[in-house]
Amino acid sequence: MNHLPQGWGRPRDDVYGAYDASYLQNSGPNQHTQQPVVTGTSVVALKFKEGVVIAADNLASYGSLARFTDVKRLRTFADAAVVGFGGDVSDMQYLDRLLTSLDTEEAYGTTGHTLNAHNLHTYLSKVFYKRRSEFNPLWNQVLVAGVDQEKKPFLASADLLGTTFSAPSLATGFGAHLAQPILRTLAPDEEAAAGLSKEQAVEAIKECMKVLFYRDARSMDKYSIAVVTKDGIDLRENEKLEAQSWAFAEKIRGYGTQVN
Amino acid sequence: MFRNNYDNDSVTFSPQGRIFQVEYASEAVKQGSVVVGLVSKTHAVLVALKRNAEELSSYQKKIIAIDEHLGLSLAGLASDARVLSNFMKQQSLSSRLTYGRAIPLERLVSAIGDRAQTNTQHYGKRPYGVGLLVAGVDETGPHLFEFQPSGMTQEMSACAIGARSQMARTYLERNLEKFADSSREELITHGLKALKESLAQDKELTVENCSVGVVGVRAEGKAVIEAFKLFDGQDVKQWVDLVADGTEEVAEGENMEVDA
Amino acid sequence: MTSIGTGYDLTNSVFSPDGRNFQVEYAVKAVENGGTSIGIRCKDGVVLAVEKVITSKLLKPGANKRIATIDRHMGAVSSGLIPDGRHFVSRAREEAASWRKVYKTPITTSDLANRMGGYLQAYTLYSSVRPFGITAIVGGWDSERELPVDGQVGSGPSIGAGGKVEGKKYGGPGLYMIEPSGLYWGYYGAATGKGRQTAKAELEKLDLAAGKLSLEDGVKEAAKIIYIAHDDNKDKEFELEMTWISGLDGPTKGRHEEVPKDILEEAERLAKKALEGDDDEEEIKEEDKPAEGDKMEE
Which of B3, B4, B13 to probe by mutation at the C interface, max C CB count within 10 Å? Predict the structure, then answer.
């Protein structure tokens, strides 16, 4: 018998071979973020004639747990742009502070700052690309909404890989599957988006938020919505979904008390 | 020149609070041939007098293009100017890469100012022996900045530095009110006239010894600019002829018809 | 200064036999030649003002700002070597940013003054550098209410962060002046540069310690003081530049901003008017006593 207590209850060396102690060391290679932890779900946005409407709900999930219910995922950048964050919330906070310091630095100059939504999107995409090239990505997909140098509506996305994309309507996460088709029927191209009024665009975005709440289990019915034009930002952070109807769900297996 | 104990390095104050090494560096600027810069509401112009070391040698480059939207002219140690202009090119490029934005002039000029200041506060460094006039346009319109070896940078309506530049400055002061509303051609003509004031008695302006740099906004409020362009040799003939000795009396009059 | 020429004044960081650091004193001389800067700590904010002597007609009017923003809630102005002032400002901005990175909250005015005092003092310690040829005035507003942490996404607990003493007032205006030696004090009213003696005399008349002067009146007083302090060298033209920081409920909402054009012009008009009235009476003579506060051990 082995007299040493640390050997008791372990696989016998004469049967299984000596334990490879290197597995006990935790001085392996550095591991960076390999998955998001606390997450926000979809962000949806749509261009219209004078600007962009953007929205995201106020939920931060911890896996399937609805962990934080008052999380503001639309962040403003100095009256010039709104950034909507999907993905990891702590990385969003890091980026938000990064944008705050960028805003402060821009305001040093006597002419005030001149970064527009387009410049901001370029900057964010470079930050994302740099971090992913270091194998230490910021786990987000963001939508940048605002106006460009010519005061025309600007909307583009950037993600953890440094990928960029621009379209008259955009959505991240589940929204890319559920909201994007709705928005595309309304605004299939830039020309169609330029024909939309603010009211039409807001209406469409609200409809998308509702559909997302119906079908996305990591969403909630409180959300933030912002309208960005050349004149500034109108941000509302405590909106509630209106006129919900769950009638459609009666036909779906697993809803309510149904069993089959 | 008087010898004093306080002028051996740039980390020693004199009892009056002066730093002689920095003041001497400013003298190096006065050794360089004269350069003139001036701005209107739409354009920024640099004109420079080039020198050749001997009959058969080439003329020293006096104007350097930095980016599409700005350039500089130098008086003093050309190699110091090259160090600074390379730095400015890097900064300009990095702004375009990171933000997709032409760097604001004030920021770029402050950056070289800060660099130059460091050289006046640490032992083993020497102040830059060069003065610069930086001309360009950004989102807030055309600008002209003067840079001095002390690290001092100032935004000017018009300026001249280099050998015998006092005469050019007197011309600029006398005609200051005319510049703001001058056309592109008028502005260049004013620049050359100011330059001419500073010529040594036996010298005259020729296509060989004259450089002109022009940058401008194409139309007020337009995003597209007239990119910085350097004119040398036969390209400056049109303007040199205009200010040639015979025509001077006519052109000096109130109703200047330089546009042709 | 009797010890000039004995060799103890040629190098920074060297004491003379009677315990002085001459290079620091000479740096103060550079300050005394610069345009006048002042700061006034009012009950509901801070004003900074500077006399910008126009050295050339060719300077672009209204450009070339001398009062810089350190962080959103803080500004600085200096007299002396202008490039040294820019160095001061960029370091102060780095300090404010690094504070934010660590604590996720804006730096207080006193903490910034402390850090910059340390920075300037370090430039008196080595023969390989020279002291700063500036005296800087830093003004700021420390939030009187609980601020969200930088990057905060939710509302947090409704009782706030805690650690607050009931009934005690937090935050408020801050004004500090930092000298080339690294020495700094908090002030109700601070003045430096060429016209500092006159400006100080005027500041003392305001009874700032009573804490009654409002920010709006402070702006007018600041303009007046710069005009009076300038009066000594009438021949040179100057521009007045002013910035202010109010509380969260005031006109700047806790931010450091330029005083709006209309308010600035009104203050200048009143200043000129007050000056004309003064000229009829007796003129205020500037005492020409040696500068105080240029010794390091104070």
Answer: B13
The model's pTM is 0.90
- The CATH class of the A38-239 domain is alpha beta
Instruction: For chain C, give every domain's residue range.
Output: 22-146+169-279
Cα–Cα distance measured from residue B238 to residue B247, given in angstroms and rounded to the nearest whole number? 13
Q: B110 to chain C: which residues are within 8 Å by CB?
A: 86
Per-residue pLDDT in tens (0 to 9) along chain C, 298 residues: 556 667 899 999 999 999 999 999 999 999 999 999 999 999 999 999 999 999 999 999 999 999 999 999 999 999 999 999 999 999 999 999 999 999 999 999 999 999 999 999 999 999 999 999 999 999 999 999 888 899 999 887 777 777 788 888 889 999 999 999 999 999 999 999 999 999 999 999 999 999 999 999 999 999 999 999 997 666 789 999 999 999 999 999 999 999 999 999 999 999 999 988 765 554 444 444 444 444 333 3
Does the domain at C22-146+169-279 match CATH 3.30.200.20? Answer given as no
- CA C213 to CA B8: how far, in whole Å? 50
> How far is Cα A112 from Cα A103, in angstroms, rounded to an integer?
10
Catalogue the active-site residues of A. 33
* CA distance linking residue A149 with residue B139, whole number of Å: 9
Confidence of residue A78 (pLDDT cuts 50, 70, 90): confident
Contacts of A72 in chain C (CB under 8 A): 153-154
**Partner-chain residue, chosen from A110, A126, A149, that has the shortest CB–CB distance to B98:** A126
Cα nearest neighbour of A129 on chain B: B98
Residues of A in contact with B223 (CB under 8 A): 149-150
Percent composition of chain B: helix, strand, coil (DSSP 3-state, to 5): 35, 25, 35
Nearest-CA neighbor of A52 among A233, A180, A236? A233
Interchain CB distance below 8 Å, C129 and B159: no
Q: Give the residue among C90, A23, C1, A1 at the shortest CA–CA distance from B118.
A: C90
DSSP labels, B61-116: P-EEEEETTEEEEEEE-HHHHHHHHHHHHHHHHHHHHHHSSPPPHHHHHHHHHHHH
Q: What is the secondary structure of A124-165 as a DSSP string?
A: HHHHHHHHHHTT----EEEEEEEE-TTS-EEEEEEETT--EE
Q: Which residues numbered 5-24 in C keep a CB inside 8 Å of some CB on B?
A: 5, 9-12, 22-23
